[in-house]
Amino acid sequence: MNLLKVGGCLMAGLLLTQPVNAATYYADAACAVQGDGTSTDCASGTGEAGAFALITEGLAELEPGDVLQLAAGTYDQRIVIQVDTNAPEGTEDDPIVIRGAGTGQTIVRGDNLDEPTVLIDRSYWTLEELTVQNGEGDELAEGGCIKVRDQISGVVLRKLVVDGQGKSGGGIKLSCLFDFTACPQGTLIEDVLSHDHLRPDREDAHCVSLNWASREEYGIADTVIRRMTAWGCSGDGVQIIGRDDGQGVSAINTLIEDSTFYRKYDIADEENAIDVKSARGVTIRGNTMHGFRPTPTSSTGTVIMVHYASRDVVIENNIIYGGGQNIRVAKGAVYEPDDHPQNVIIRNNIIYNATKVGAGNHQGGIGNGITIAEATNVKLLHNTVVDSEGTGIEINQSATDVLLQGNLVVGSGADDHELSLSNSGNVTASHNLIWGNDGPGTVKGVADLSSVCPTCLNADPIFVDREGHDFHLVAGSPAIDAGESMDEVVTDQEGTVRDETPNLGALESVSSVPPEPVTSSKGGGCIAAHSGAPTGHLPVWMLTASAFAWLIRRRRRPLRARR
User: pTM of this prediction?
Assistant: First the structure.
């Protein structure tokens, strides 16, 4: 085949994918007068050839496919993308892009503490490669950093640092207009660091929040949050907001994946990594989350909280540790209607070191790995739950239609149990393994485990390194090939395909190296608040954040061989 012809066809194809009249415009905070945006240099007079001095005033010049390139520098001005500023809409194929010179180099910090620094009310705009703050100085900034609202689609927030500076009213807010009937859909938040929206003893300031709508057809929908790092927020890393009185409709079809959430400060203010209130169609997968503890406004100190009337929630392939409760599914104490979460799948998670220690000087919690309270149709499948200071998995009297299959539950507090089944008649248990701190595990509410689960085991699973949190199984473990295949779990946490007799727990692959003896396998204990928050330019913190979960898994691979 003629390579020149192939190359010509490829080039023609690439050209066809580009907007025919796409242009690049320029803005520079150092310029004193408003140019026409056509040059990187500053204009000699208003409207002449040169960079925009004011970003928002230049937006009317842009068309679908155009790029507005912001020079390095600090912009004490807002970016307002709405009809009132004559900002056009992009298209699905040709979005309009505002691009900085890099996080830490291009800083947009606004000029009105009561308004968000970036406001997006138009479809198909992309904001990328810059830092967003909310004003200078120490005064509280009620407006927050970024707000996406109105009945729009296709907004992308990518490669940003959203820095609350310890005073912001919130990081990224997806919200609605016109009596909650105009809400954004198809928003992508990707490779973003949102931090320090911290306002102790005041209203919540979440790292990311998704608001409720008045009716289903208007709701926030199809939001993707990917490879985000969130810490230091007065409230949650991500909150899907729902009303206590049950009115309105929470976000629909939300994906949160490959992200990192942790408690940064030793004060009682950071509540949960992810808080799901009455949402429908939520998938939480492949994230690393740790360190959230009980606070005055979140007495459970839960890492992942699913409550109110949430529906169709999947929590899978996460690493979760050091929380007051690592996962909790329940109605919630303040939810008024007679309803509760339904249709929840929790699978292939590694969960360890749940703690009874509170945040700061606040009282502690119960230290459970997983708690299922008021909920219906909940499936706990192939999770590895280790060394909880409370109970490993607790299923309360009010939970109904619960399936417990393929789990490894190892280690609990001195006065607690690996499993707690208040009403075993509401639980179907099959092919699980429990083990205690230094001997056989116990089940609260059941005199004999075999009476409710004839296929369950009470034996040491033989991890590669329990204290080092390597929960791969060693050859000869009784948990190997001890499971039963099921349609809901076809791979393990690392993507390995499970066979007809899968291993118990979250990990299918096996190490051939026996574990070294340890003086005590008693787990629990508290995890210190993470210090040394990622800072600097994006490549540095992206490596720190996204590599964290990868390293946990990767560091063990030389020790094991696939079956």
Answer: 0.88
